[in-house]
Recover the amino acids of this structure.
């Protein structure tokens, strides 16, 4: 298969839906003989900050001289973002070859592996083939039944837990925390961000149930050197990343930590594209709250022209309620996410939350950006990683993620 054909096949497996469970992915990983036995795997779950923490661990590890593999999701502009080695995305040829091998392997399997199971297997296969000695795995959703939980790490990391993916993970914070805490394993130390009391209680109980050897809640933020990602909350993420590396007994010194944190890159997380445009993937109320906090830290009392979009399974009203605090006007694009709420529906949501808010519907991201930039305000793109990815592709002048299979 070519790269485009391989991606078309992979995305076609989304027809099999989301199947939470580990039996099928364990079978797939065993057949591919991954992960490599000597690899140190750091496994990260949580609701917000997972990707930033993973990127920081990866960057520090590389600065310390490790050959590091990084597996994250979702992607913003290209599928290849999900699988990186030493900061470089997996090549198109490697994607095509790996997916061809996996397709031939699982052709007659019942049940057929899902999109995320195959993507996880492809990442671990690439990390084995490129001789990574440090691997950072971000859970896709939840933890307990997530495909990434089929491996045994050297440390389990949990970022702040909040309400998200309730359809799959449970309606209460305790239920969601139980799914996230499902990555906790016997013999594996646990490092966690500070949690709300209900979530902390669940994590402590899970550690006790499996007799994990160590549990650390990282309370203080990292202040020893600059962190490239903006926002005071990123200091907390940095402290969690450093604690995770230490718990994993990955050899790092203060110089490597400082170099890694100064160089970390994680797009669409309060990313200043230029002096006018900020892109943040805030896609749940907690993430939106942090985006507002960071906006005020960086821009003070300035208001923004908000380019806003949300997926259907998200809490649109609650997300906008947070962002409304800094918005002077809202621009609603029609973007290409399959589950995107239409701008007309979002306009009704916004009217119910902030009836006086100026609200402008546009047929595309480019039209929304153009209208927002015609104001005298800075522009904040927020509400969805899918929206953020489409805007990034537009600004970069590259094909968007949904166009990759059609190239």
């Amino acid at each position: 298969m070519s790269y485009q054909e391989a991606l078309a096949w992979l995305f076609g497996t989304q027809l099999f839906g989301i199947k939470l469970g580990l039996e099928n992915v364990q079978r797939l990983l065993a057949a591919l003989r991954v992960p490599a036995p000597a690899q140190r795997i750091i496994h990260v779950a949580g609701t917000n900050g997972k990707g930033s923490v993973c990127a920081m661990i990866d960057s520090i590890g590389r600065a310390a001289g490790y050959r590091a593999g990084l597996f994250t999701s979702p992607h913003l502009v290209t599928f290849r973002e999900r699988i990186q080695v030493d900061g470089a995305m997996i090549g198109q040829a490697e994607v095509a070859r790996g997916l061809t091998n996996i397709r031939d392997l699982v052709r007659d399997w019942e049940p057929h592996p899902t999109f995320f199971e195959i993507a996880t297997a492809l990442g671990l296969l690439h990390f084995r083939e490129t001789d990574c000695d440090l691997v950072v795995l971000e859970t896709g959703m939840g933890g307990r039944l997530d495909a990434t939980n089929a491996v045994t790490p050297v440390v389990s990391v949990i970022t702040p837990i909040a309400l998200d993916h309730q359809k799959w993970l449970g309606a209460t914070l305790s239920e969601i925390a139980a799914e996230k805490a499902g990555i906790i394993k016997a013999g594996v130390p646990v490092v966690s961000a500070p949690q709300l009391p209900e979530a902390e209680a669940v994590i402590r109980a899970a550690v006790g149930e499996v007799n994990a050897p160590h549990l650390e809640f990282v309370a203080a933020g990292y202040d020893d050197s600059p962190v490239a990602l903006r926002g005071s909350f990123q200091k907390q993420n940095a402290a969690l990343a450093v604690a995770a590396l230490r718990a994993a007994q990955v050899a790092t010194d203060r110089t490597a930590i400082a170099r890694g944190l100064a160089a970390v890159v994680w797009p669409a997380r309060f990313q200043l594209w230029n002096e006018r445009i900020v892109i943040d993937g805030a896609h749940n109320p907690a993430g939106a709250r942090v985006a507002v906090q960071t906006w005020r830290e960086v821009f003070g009392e300035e208001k923004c022209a908000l380019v806003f979009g949300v997926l259907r399974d998200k809490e649109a009203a609650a997300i906008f309620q947070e962002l409304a605090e800094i918005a002077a006007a809202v621009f609603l694009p029609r973007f290409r996410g399959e589950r995107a709420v239409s701008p007309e529906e979002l306009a009704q949501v916004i009217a119910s939350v902030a009836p006086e808010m100026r609200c402008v519907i546009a047929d595309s991201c480019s039209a929304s950006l153009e209208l927002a930039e015609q104001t005298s305000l800075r522009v904040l793109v927020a509400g969805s990683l899918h929206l953020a990815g489409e805007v990034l592709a537009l600004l970069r002048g590259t094909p968007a993620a949904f166009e990759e299979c059609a190239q």
Observations:
- Residues 92-106 form the longest helix (15 residues).
- The chain has a mean pLDDT of 94.
- The radius of gyration is 21 Å.
- Residues 166 and 176 are 8 Å apart (CA to CA).
